[in-house]
Protein backbone atom coordinates (compact mmCIF):
# COMPACT_ATOMS: atom_id res chain seq x y z
CA UNK A 1 0.00 0.00 0.00
CA UNK A 2 1.32 3.46 -0.84
CA UNK A 3 2.39 5.55 2.16
CA UNK A 4 3.65 8.86 0.78
CA UNK A 5 0.45 10.85 1.18
CA UNK A 6 -0.23 9.26 4.56
CA UNK A 7 3.14 10.42 5.91
CA UNK A 8 2.61 13.95 4.63
CA UNK A 9 -0.85 14.18 6.13
CA UNK A 10 0.10 12.77 9.52
CA UNK A 11 3.04 15.16 9.80
CA UNK A 12 0.61 18.05 9.45
CA UNK A 13 -1.96 16.72 11.92
CA UNK A 14 -2.01 15.88 15.58
CA UNK A 15 -1.63 12.14 15.91
CA UNK A 16 -2.22 9.40 18.41
CA UNK A 17 -0.13 6.36 17.56
CA UNK A 18 -0.12 2.95 19.10
CA UNK A 19 2.68 0.43 18.69
CA UNK A 20 3.55 -2.85 20.30
CA UNK A 21 6.58 -5.07 20.05
CA UNK A 22 5.62 -8.00 17.87
CA UNK A 23 6.19 -11.30 19.58
CA UNK A 24 6.21 -13.17 16.29
CA UNK A 25 8.78 -12.60 13.57
CA UNK A 26 6.54 -10.94 11.02
CA UNK A 27 3.05 -10.06 12.23
CA UNK A 28 0.57 -8.73 9.69
CA UNK A 29 0.57 -4.91 9.84
CA UNK A 30 -2.79 -3.10 9.78
CA UNK A 31 -3.21 0.69 9.74
CA UNK A 32 -6.35 2.14 11.34
CA UNK A 33 -7.34 5.81 11.02
CA UNK A 34 -9.87 7.43 13.33
CA UNK A 35 -11.09 10.89 14.34
CA UNK A 36 -11.91 10.26 18.01
CA UNK A 37 -10.97 13.53 19.69
CA UNK A 38 -12.95 13.46 22.95
CA UNK A 39 -10.63 12.35 25.72
CA UNK A 40 -12.60 9.21 26.63
CA UNK A 41 -12.89 7.99 23.03
CA UNK A 42 -9.31 8.86 22.11
CA UNK A 43 -7.82 7.02 25.07
CA UNK A 44 -10.16 4.06 24.64
CA UNK A 45 -9.09 3.37 21.04
CA UNK A 46 -5.43 3.53 22.11
CA UNK A 47 -6.06 1.12 24.97
CA UNK A 48 -8.05 -1.28 22.80
CA UNK A 49 -5.44 -1.45 20.06
CA UNK A 50 -2.78 -2.02 22.69
CA UNK A 51 -4.88 -4.79 24.23
CA UNK A 52 -5.53 -6.49 20.89
CA UNK A 53 -1.86 -6.42 19.99
CA UNK A 54 -1.01 -8.06 23.32
CA UNK A 55 -3.61 -10.82 22.96
CA UNK A 56 -2.19 -12.44 19.84
CA UNK A 57 0.97 -12.67 17.76
CA UNK A 58 -0.31 -12.61 14.19
CA UNK A 59 -1.74 -9.11 13.68
CA UNK A 60 -0.33 -5.74 14.70
CA UNK A 61 -2.68 -2.74 14.58
CA UNK A 62 -1.38 0.83 14.40
CA UNK A 63 -4.02 3.47 15.17
CA UNK A 64 -3.57 7.04 13.98
CA UNK A 65 -5.70 10.07 14.80
CA UNK A 66 -6.66 12.29 11.86
CA UNK A 67 -9.08 15.20 12.23
CA UNK A 68 -12.54 14.41 10.92
CA UNK A 69 -12.51 16.96 8.10
CA UNK A 70 -9.08 15.88 6.92
CA UNK A 71 -9.98 12.21 7.12
CA UNK A 72 -13.12 12.71 5.04
CA UNK A 73 -11.09 14.67 2.51
CA UNK A 74 -8.52 11.89 2.43
CA UNK A 75 -11.25 9.36 1.66
CA UNK A 76 -12.38 11.47 -1.29
CA UNK A 77 -8.83 11.84 -2.61
CA UNK A 78 -7.89 8.27 -1.75
CA UNK A 79 -10.80 6.85 -3.72
CA UNK A 80 -8.88 7.91 -6.84
CA UNK A 81 -5.26 7.72 -5.66
CA UNK A 82 -5.47 4.52 -3.63
CA UNK A 83 -3.94 6.27 -0.61
CA UNK A 84 -6.19 4.75 2.03
CA UNK A 85 -5.71 3.10 5.43
CA UNK A 86 -6.50 -0.56 5.93
CA UNK A 87 -9.34 0.24 8.35
CA UNK A 88 -11.15 3.57 8.38
CA UNK A 89 -13.68 5.24 10.67
CA UNK A 90 -16.67 7.16 9.32
CA UNK A 91 -19.81 8.85 10.67
CA UNK A 92 -22.77 6.54 10.11
CA UNK A 93 -24.80 8.73 7.68
CA UNK A 94 -21.70 9.41 5.57
CA UNK A 95 -20.68 5.81 5.00
CA UNK A 96 -22.97 5.22 2.02
CA UNK A 97 -21.41 8.18 0.21
CA UNK A 98 -17.93 6.74 0.63
CA UNK A 99 -19.11 3.26 -0.30
CA UNK A 100 -20.36 4.72 -3.59
CA UNK A 101 -16.96 6.32 -4.15
CA UNK A 102 -15.26 2.95 -3.72
CA UNK A 103 -13.53 3.76 -0.44
CA UNK A 104 -14.71 0.62 1.38
CA UNK A 105 -14.49 -3.07 0.53
CA UNK A 106 -17.49 -5.43 0.38
CA UNK A 107 -17.06 -7.84 3.31
CA UNK A 108 -20.58 -9.29 3.35
CA UNK A 109 -19.55 -12.93 2.95
CA UNK A 110 -17.01 -12.82 5.77
CA UNK A 111 -19.40 -11.12 8.18
CA UNK A 112 -22.26 -13.47 7.37
CA UNK A 113 -19.94 -16.41 8.04
CA UNK A 114 -19.17 -14.84 11.44
CA UNK A 115 -22.78 -15.57 12.40
CA UNK A 116 -23.35 -12.60 14.73
CA UNK A 117 -25.02 -10.02 12.49
CA UNK A 118 -28.47 -10.80 13.92
CA UNK A 119 -27.26 -9.42 17.26
CA UNK A 120 -26.84 -5.88 15.92
CA UNK A 121 -29.54 -3.23 16.01
CA UNK A 122 -31.04 -2.94 12.54
CA UNK A 123 -30.56 0.82 12.24
CA UNK A 124 -26.81 0.99 12.94
CA UNK A 125 -26.11 -2.11 10.85
CA UNK A 126 -28.04 -0.74 7.87
CA UNK A 127 -25.81 2.35 7.85
CA UNK A 128 -22.92 0.05 6.84
CA UNK A 129 -24.76 -1.20 3.74
CA UNK A 130 -25.12 -0.15 0.13
CA UNK A 131 -28.51 0.05 -1.58
CA UNK A 132 -28.40 -3.70 -2.30
CA UNK A 133 -27.79 -4.64 1.32
CA UNK A 134 -24.11 -5.51 1.00
CA UNK A 135 -21.97 -4.84 4.09
CA UNK A 136 -18.77 -2.80 4.07
CA UNK A 137 -18.08 -2.55 7.79
CA UNK A 138 -19.59 -2.71 11.26
CA UNK A 139 -21.19 -0.10 13.53
CA UNK A 140 -18.82 0.37 16.47
CA UNK A 141 -20.80 2.74 18.65
CA UNK A 142 -24.15 4.44 18.54
CA UNK A 143 -26.27 7.18 20.00
CA UNK A 144 -29.76 8.51 19.55
CA UNK A 145 -32.11 11.24 20.74
CA UNK A 146 -34.54 11.32 23.65
CA UNK A 147 -36.33 13.95 25.74
CA UNK A 148 -34.86 15.64 28.82
CA UNK A 149 -37.41 17.13 31.22
CA UNK A 150 -37.17 19.66 34.03
CA UNK A 151 -39.37 17.81 36.52
CA UNK A 152 -39.70 20.86 38.78
CA UNK A 153 -41.02 22.97 35.89
CA UNK A 154 -43.50 20.28 34.91
CA UNK A 155 -44.70 19.93 38.51
CA UNK A 156 -45.14 23.69 38.84
CA UNK A 157 -47.35 23.57 35.74
CA UNK A 158 -49.47 20.81 37.27
CA UNK A 159 -47.90 17.70 35.71
CA UNK A 160 -46.63 14.72 37.68
CA UNK A 161 -45.26 12.85 34.65
CA UNK A 162 -43.28 13.39 31.48
CA UNK A 163 -45.07 13.59 28.10
CA UNK A 164 -45.99 10.37 26.32
CA UNK A 165 -47.49 11.76 23.10
CA UNK A 166 -46.89 14.63 20.69
CA UNK A 167 -50.16 16.26 21.73
CA UNK A 168 -49.14 16.13 25.39
CA UNK A 169 -45.68 17.49 24.60
CA UNK A 170 -47.24 20.51 22.89
CA UNK A 171 -49.62 21.04 25.80
CA UNK A 172 -46.85 20.81 28.38
CA UNK A 173 -44.52 23.01 26.35
CA UNK A 174 -47.10 25.78 26.25
CA UNK A 175 -47.90 25.39 29.95
CA UNK A 176 -44.24 25.63 31.01
CA UNK A 177 -43.36 28.63 28.83
CA UNK A 178 -42.75 31.91 30.65
CA UNK A 179 -42.30 34.82 28.26
CA UNK A 180 -41.30 37.22 31.05
CA UNK A 181 -38.27 35.14 32.01
CA UNK A 182 -37.58 34.00 28.44
CA UNK A 183 -38.07 30.39 29.49
CA UNK A 184 -39.37 28.12 26.76
CA UNK A 185 -41.30 24.91 27.11
CA UNK A 186 -39.32 23.00 24.49
CA UNK A 187 -35.94 23.31 22.79
CA UNK A 188 -34.39 21.52 19.83
CA UNK A 189 -31.92 22.22 17.05
CA UNK A 190 -33.23 23.18 13.61
CA UNK A 191 -29.90 24.56 12.41
CA UNK A 192 -29.07 24.38 8.70
CA UNK A 193 -26.55 21.54 9.04
CA UNK A 194 -26.66 17.78 9.53
CA UNK A 195 -27.24 18.46 13.23
CA UNK A 196 -30.56 20.03 12.32
CA UNK A 197 -31.64 17.11 10.15
CA UNK A 198 -30.59 14.71 12.91
CA UNK A 199 -33.02 16.38 15.32
CA UNK A 200 -35.81 17.15 12.83
CA UNK A 201 -36.25 13.64 11.42
CA UNK A 202 -37.92 12.05 14.47
CA UNK A 203 -40.82 14.50 14.22
CA UNK A 204 -41.35 13.66 10.54
CA UNK A 205 -41.25 9.93 11.26
CA UNK A 206 -43.76 9.87 14.12
CA UNK A 207 -46.84 7.63 14.20
CA UNK A 208 -49.95 9.78 13.80
CA UNK A 209 -53.46 8.33 14.22
CA UNK A 210 -52.14 4.82 13.86
CA UNK A 211 -50.27 5.57 10.64
CA UNK A 212 -47.12 3.85 9.45
CA UNK A 213 -44.01 5.88 10.17
CA UNK A 214 -43.06 8.01 7.17
CA UNK A 215 -39.77 7.38 5.42
CA UNK A 216 -37.54 9.98 3.79
CA UNK A 217 -39.04 8.83 0.50
CA UNK A 218 -42.52 10.01 1.57
CA UNK A 219 -42.24 13.23 3.57
CA UNK A 220 -45.53 14.48 2.13
CA UNK A 221 -47.34 11.78 4.12
CA UNK A 222 -49.98 13.12 6.51
CA UNK A 223 -47.96 11.92 9.50
CA UNK A 224 -44.85 13.84 8.40
CA UNK A 225 -46.88 16.98 7.75
CA UNK A 226 -48.46 16.63 11.20
CA UNK A 227 -45.03 16.45 12.80
CA UNK A 228 -43.76 19.52 10.97
CA UNK A 229 -46.98 21.35 11.82
CA UNK A 230 -46.46 20.60 15.51
CA UNK A 231 -42.99 22.17 15.39
CA UNK A 232 -44.39 25.21 13.58
CA UNK A 233 -47.18 25.57 16.13
CA UNK A 234 -44.75 25.50 19.06
CA UNK A 235 -42.67 28.24 17.45
CA UNK A 236 -45.75 30.30 16.58
CA UNK A 237 -47.23 30.15 20.08
CA UNK A 238 -43.90 30.96 21.68
CA UNK A 239 -43.29 27.66 23.45
CA UNK A 240 -40.21 27.03 21.27
CA UNK A 241 -37.70 29.76 20.50
CA UNK A 242 -37.16 30.88 16.92
CA UNK A 243 -33.47 30.74 17.81
CA UNK A 244 -33.76 26.99 17.25
CA UNK A 245 -32.71 27.72 13.66
CA UNK A 246 -29.30 28.81 14.99
CA UNK A 247 -28.85 26.45 17.93
CA UNK A 248 -26.50 23.51 17.75
CA UNK A 249 -27.26 20.45 19.86
CA UNK A 250 -24.76 21.75 22.40
CA UNK A 251 -26.68 25.03 22.57
CA UNK A 252 -29.94 23.15 23.13
CA UNK A 253 -28.49 21.20 26.05
CA UNK A 254 -27.03 24.39 27.52
CA UNK A 255 -30.48 26.02 27.38
CA UNK A 256 -31.93 23.07 29.25
CA UNK A 257 -29.11 22.90 31.81
CA UNK A 258 -29.51 26.62 32.54
CA UNK A 259 -33.23 26.21 33.20
CA UNK A 260 -34.22 28.12 30.08
CA UNK A 261 -36.09 25.19 28.50
CA UNK A 262 -38.44 22.93 30.42
CA UNK A 263 -37.93 20.10 27.92
CA UNK A 264 -35.25 19.50 25.31
CA UNK A 265 -34.33 17.02 22.60
CA UNK A 266 -30.87 15.79 23.56
CA UNK A 267 -28.37 13.09 22.62
CA UNK A 268 -26.89 10.19 24.53
CA UNK A 269 -23.55 11.96 24.90
CA UNK A 270 -25.17 14.73 26.96
CA UNK A 271 -25.58 12.30 29.86
CA UNK A 272 -21.90 12.88 30.61
CA UNK A 273 -22.64 16.61 31.05
CA UNK A 274 -25.52 16.53 33.52
CA UNK A 275 -23.30 17.91 36.28
CA UNK A 276 -23.82 21.29 34.59
CA UNK A 277 -27.58 21.25 35.24
CA UNK A 278 -28.40 24.21 37.44
CA UNK A 279 -30.29 23.19 40.56
CA UNK A 280 -33.42 21.38 39.42
CA UNK A 281 -34.68 17.82 39.30
CA UNK A 282 -34.60 16.27 35.86
CA UNK A 283 -35.53 13.08 34.07
CA UNK A 284 -35.46 11.47 30.64
CA UNK A 285 -38.14 9.80 28.55
CA UNK A 286 -38.69 8.47 25.06
CA UNK A 287 -39.12 11.18 22.46
CA UNK A 288 -42.94 11.62 22.16
CA UNK A 289 -43.24 12.24 18.44
CA UNK A 290 -46.72 10.93 17.73
CA UNK A 291 -49.54 8.86 19.17
CA UNK A 292 -49.74 7.97 22.86
CA UNK A 293 -46.97 5.56 23.80
CA UNK A 294 -45.16 5.74 20.46
CA UNK A 295 -41.74 7.17 19.73
CA UNK A 296 -39.24 7.72 16.95
CA UNK A 297 -35.62 8.83 17.04
CA UNK A 298 -32.53 9.18 14.86
CA UNK A 299 -29.38 7.11 15.07
CA UNK A 300 -25.93 8.61 15.22
CA UNK A 301 -22.59 6.94 15.75
CA UNK A 302 -19.41 5.78 14.07
CA UNK A 303 -18.71 2.85 11.79
CA UNK A 304 -15.44 1.16 10.89
CA UNK A 305 -14.89 -0.36 7.47
CA UNK A 306 -12.19 -2.22 5.58
CA UNK A 307 -10.81 0.12 2.92
CA UNK A 308 -10.45 -0.88 -0.70
CA UNK A 309 -6.97 -2.16 -1.45
CA UNK A 310 -6.19 -3.25 2.11
CA UNK A 311 -3.25 -5.64 1.82
CA UNK A 312 -4.48 -7.86 4.64
CA UNK A 313 -8.26 -7.89 4.34
CA UNK A 314 -8.75 -10.95 6.53
CA UNK A 315 -6.67 -9.46 9.34
CA UNK A 316 -8.73 -6.27 9.16
CA UNK A 317 -11.96 -8.24 9.43
CA UNK A 318 -10.66 -10.21 12.41
CA UNK A 319 -9.96 -6.97 14.27
CA UNK A 320 -13.39 -5.54 13.40
CA UNK A 321 -15.07 -8.67 14.72
CA UNK A 322 -13.11 -8.41 17.97
CA UNK A 323 -13.76 -4.68 18.36
CA UNK A 324 -17.50 -5.15 17.73
CA UNK A 325 -17.92 -8.30 19.79
CA UNK A 326 -20.55 -8.55 22.51
CA UNK A 327 -18.00 -7.96 25.27
CA UNK A 328 -16.20 -5.03 23.66
CA UNK A 329 -19.44 -3.32 22.58
CA UNK A 330 -20.55 -3.22 26.20
CA UNK A 331 -17.17 -1.97 27.39
CA UNK A 332 -17.10 0.88 24.87
CA UNK A 333 -20.52 2.08 25.94
CA UNK A 334 -19.25 2.58 29.49
CA UNK A 335 -15.85 4.16 28.81
CA UNK A 336 -17.08 6.49 26.03
CA UNK A 337 -20.64 7.22 27.17
CA UNK A 338 -22.26 5.66 24.11
CA UNK A 339 -24.90 3.04 23.35
CA UNK A 340 -23.75 -0.43 22.26
CA UNK A 341 -24.73 -1.30 18.70
CA UNK A 342 -25.57 -4.86 19.71
CA UNK A 343 -28.79 -6.00 21.34
CA UNK A 344 -26.95 -8.64 23.36
CA UNK A 345 -24.30 -6.29 24.78
CA UNK A 346 -24.60 -4.99 28.33
CA UNK A 347 -23.02 -1.67 29.29
CA UNK A 348 -22.79 -1.37 33.08
CA UNK A 349 -22.81 2.42 33.43
CA UNK A 350 -21.75 3.83 36.78
CA UNK A 351 -23.33 7.24 36.08
CA UNK A 352 -26.79 8.38 34.86
CA UNK A 353 -27.94 4.78 34.83
CA UNK A 354 -31.63 5.64 34.47
CA UNK A 355 -30.83 7.98 31.60
CA UNK A 356 -28.84 5.35 29.74
CA UNK A 357 -31.70 2.90 30.22
CA UNK A 358 -34.03 5.34 28.45
CA UNK A 359 -31.64 5.91 25.55
CA UNK A 360 -31.02 2.18 25.22
CA UNK A 361 -34.78 1.63 24.96
CA UNK A 362 -35.03 4.50 22.45
CA UNK A 363 -32.67 2.64 20.15
CA UNK A 364 -35.56 0.28 19.40
CA UNK A 365 -37.39 3.19 17.74
CA UNK A 366 -34.42 4.91 16.12
CA UNK A 367 -33.80 5.04 12.36
CA UNK A 368 -30.60 5.55 10.43
CA UNK A 369 -30.18 8.52 8.11
CA UNK A 370 -30.28 6.87 4.71
CA UNK A 371 -28.03 5.16 4.06
CA UNK A 372 -27.65 6.82 0.68
CA UNK A 373 -24.71 8.08 -1.40
CA UNK A 374 -26.49 11.43 -1.87
CA UNK A 375 -27.44 11.84 1.77
CA UNK A 376 -25.92 15.35 2.08
CA UNK A 377 -28.33 16.62 -0.61
CA UNK A 378 -31.29 14.84 1.01
CA UNK A 379 -30.34 16.28 4.38
CA UNK A 380 -30.12 19.81 3.01
CA UNK A 381 -33.61 19.52 1.55
CA UNK A 382 -34.98 18.50 4.96
CA UNK A 383 -33.39 21.21 7.08
CA UNK A 384 -34.08 23.85 4.42
CA UNK A 385 -37.78 22.94 4.40
CA UNK A 386 -37.89 23.21 8.19
CA UNK A 387 -36.19 26.58 8.19
CA UNK A 388 -38.60 27.90 5.59
CA UNK A 389 -41.51 26.93 7.86
CA UNK A 390 -39.97 28.58 10.92
CA UNK A 391 -38.42 31.65 9.32
CA UNK A 392 -40.72 32.39 6.39
CA UNK A 393 -43.96 30.92 7.67
CA UNK A 394 -44.23 28.50 4.75
CA UNK A 395 -47.09 26.04 5.08
CA UNK A 396 -45.63 22.74 6.38
CA UNK A 397 -47.24 20.66 3.62
CA UNK A 398 -45.93 23.04 0.97
CA UNK A 399 -42.43 23.05 2.47
CA UNK A 400 -42.24 19.26 2.60
CA UNK A 401 -43.57 19.00 -0.94
CA UNK A 402 -40.73 21.30 -1.98
CA UNK A 403 -38.23 19.09 -0.19
CA UNK A 404 -39.56 16.06 -2.04
CA UNK A 405 -38.95 17.82 -5.37
CA UNK A 406 -35.26 17.53 -4.52
CA UNK A 407 -35.36 14.15 -2.79
CA UNK A 408 -37.57 12.17 -5.19
CA UNK A 409 -35.27 12.30 -8.27
CA UNK A 410 -32.32 11.33 -6.07
CA UNK A 411 -33.95 8.21 -4.66
CA UNK A 412 -35.55 7.29 -7.98
CA UNK A 413 -32.06 7.08 -9.46
CA UNK A 414 -30.63 5.30 -6.43
CA UNK A 415 -33.35 3.83 -4.19
CA UNK A 416 -33.07 3.72 -0.43
CA UNK A 417 -32.46 0.22 0.98
From TrEMBL:
GO terms for molecular function: maltose binding. Residues 1-22 form the signal peptide. GO terms for cellular component: ATP-binding cassette (ABC) transporter complex, substrate-binding subunit-containing. It comes from the Bacteria. InterPro entries: SBP. SUPFAM superfamilies: Periplasmic binding protein-like II (SSF53850). The keyword DNA repair does not apply. Keywords: Signal, Transport. GO terms for biological process: maltodextrin transmembrane transport; maltose transport. Belongs to the bacterial solute-binding protein 1 family. This is Extracellular solute-binding protein.
